[in-house]
Amino acid sequence: MRIASIDHSALLNKLKVKGKVYRQIKAWLKAGVIDNEVFSKTNQGTPQGGVISPLLANIALHGLDEHLMLFARNSKGWKYKSGVLMGRRDREQSLTFIRYADDFVVLHNSKDVILECKNIISEWLKGIGLELKPSKTRMTHTLLNEESEDGKAGFDFLGFHIQQYEAGIHNDSLSQKGKHHGFKSLITPSRKALTKHQASIKAAIKEHEKSPQAALILKLNPIIQGWTNYYRFSDVKTTGILSKQKDLTHWKLRRWGVRRCESDQKSVNNYFHKDKSKRWVFSTREGNTSLKLINYCDTHCSSTEYVKVKGTRSPYDGEWLYWCSRMGNYSGISPSVATLLKKQKGKCAHCGQYFRENDVMEIDHIIPKSQEGSNKYDNRQLLHGHCHDSKTAQDNKTLADSKLKAKQLRDNIEQRWLDGETNFTEEEKVILNEILQKRYEGLEPTEAFYDHTTIGKRKKSPKGSKTSKEKQPKARKPKRYIKGRRIKTQEAPKVAR
Ligand SMILES: [Zn+2]
Q1: Burial class of residue 243 in the structure, from the number of CB atoms within 10 Å of its CB (0-12 exposed, 13-18 middle, 19+ buried)
Q2: How far does residue 353's CA lie from ligand 1's centre (Å)?
Q3: From the DSSP assignment, how many helices (H) and strands (E) are in the chain?
Q4: Which of 1, 91, 196, 440 is close enough to 137 for a disulfide, judged by CB 3.0 to 4.6 Å?
Q5: Residue 345 Cα, ligand 1 centroid: separation in angstroms?
Q6: Which of the pair, 11 or 380, is modelled with greater confidence?
Q7: Is the Cβ–Cβ distance between 103 and 163 less than 8 Å?
Q8: In 3D, which of 354, 314, 349 has the Cα closest to residue 330?
Q9: How many CB atoms lie within 10 A of CB 62?
Q10: How far is the CA of 377 from the centre of ligand 1 (A)?
């Protein structure tokens, strides 16, 4: 359904603004249109094609959805397919209203309800001086041709075509209870959108008839990228539309090449090259820096992955928590917090609860930085303030425990060594080596073993000593020991050799 024209005074009344803003909007409305160098006054309707018209449409149609929901809530006699009467909540849920600027769709499984809705919308629009445009208002069934006004099932909305098709039990969609519907819903680009896209490709190629190949690729890539991104939440891949678009573009480019080289073979040799996966790609020749045309089929598409914006949320409502979790960015929120929020889907990684508006949020390192944890996103998580405290306490406890355990192990090994045991596992040998390096000045395990009986008591390592011998000199400049021999200083520990 679409709106024909907007009555200015009714719109201005709805705005409820005064003074400067009122005068400015009034001026916009009266601005007039220059079409084909002919000026025409706009006493009715918004300036078409201007930036302002979707905004004015939004203002004019604001509240229509609530009006329809009110109608669903208060009406009586709506029935399920089985003939049972619907409850209030189900009545509201069964009616769907989707609007984008002045374009909107009303969905319901009963034709009578749709007819009633049409009347209600018409009346509501009259209140603000609007009317439905008959040429752009259509009543249709999504599955059955014969149920539709013009004999064609399905409808177009925002460049998409939505239609249901009969399907066997292996292909059809399932109901929430797991029953076979006998049909499947497909969301594809509308016929108009497909033609329009190929027309824009054609225009770009025509414009670059005599330009270098690189310029043409740079022109085409954003067009293809933008188009595939727009349709990434649709069945554009499974229905083979992407590969068809790819083929159509490919043949246009072959023709472009032939025009320049006067031979198809030459055109292929000059402008198409094999990529790493040995596919022929429209690309420039130079080695690693070569420019390539984006492949339509490389886009990931799925009609079921899209997550609907909840209820009446809007990016301008200040619900930063919701929008951060959904989009991974919001103005005024640091990018790292926003990224982590999105990654964690708005939940605390420690307690699993959702963050709320006024919660303290802190970034935590999963492996603490004190234990050489990195500062990368993999090692970061967002926690509640109190969860962060308990996690840090836990980290410190495990760290202290592991240190204690390591110390006990070291002591045990050293004691066994001092007791004359030689039977050590590989792991223990490594630890023993470290102990010897630290405490016994790097004696070989065997050598030290034979010597330890003469050393008797173990030497205490001076403070700040390092494990490796080579690193020692600076820290221990007044060496107390040289290869185990005692140099007489006052602080020297009691060691006999
Ligand atoms: Zn928490």
Answers
A1: middle
A2: 6
A3: 15, 13
A4: 1
A5: 13
A6: 380
A7: no
A8: 314
A9: 11
A10: 18
240's tokens: 């083979």
Q: Is the pTM of this model over 0.70?
A: no
Tokens of 94: 């069964």
CA–centroid distance, 317 to ligand 1, in Å, is 25
Q: How many residues does the chain have?
A: 497
The yes-or-no verdict on residue 183 having pLDDT over 80 is yes
CA dihedral 296, 299, 302, 303 (to 10 degrees): -50
Cα–Cα separations (whole angstroms), residue 390 to 251, 303, 347, 360, 399: 63, 42, 17, 14, 14
Listed residue (37, 61, 55, 47) closest to 124, CA to CA:
61
Distance 352 CA to ligand 1 centre (A): 6
Closest by CA position to 376, among listed 347, 336, 335: 336
Residue 351 CA to ligand 1 center (angstroms) comes to: 4
Instruction: Kindly report the number of other CB atoms within 10 A of residue 349's CB atom.
Output: 17
Band the pLDDT of 35: cuts 50, 70, 90.
low
- pLDDT tens profile 44-97: 544 454 445 777 788 888 888 899 999 999 988 888 888 888 889 999 889 999
Would the pLDDT of 347 be above 80?
yes
Per-residue confidence (pLDDT) for residue 336, from 0 to 100: 87
Cα dihedral 251, 255, 256, 257, rounded to 10, equals 100
Give distance in angstroms: CA of 90 to centre of ligand 1: 36
**Sorting pLDDT into bands at 50, 70 and 90, what band is 165?**
very high
Q: How far is the CA of 310 from the centre of ligand 1 (A)?
A: 23
237-259 pLDDT per residue, tens? 999 999 999 999 999 999 999 99
Give yes or no for residue 108 having a pLDDT over 50. Answer: yes
Compute, in angstroms, the gap from residue 320 CA to the centroid of ligand 1. Answer: 18
In which band, very low, low, confident or very high, does the pLDDT at 472 lie, cut at 50, 70 and 90? very low
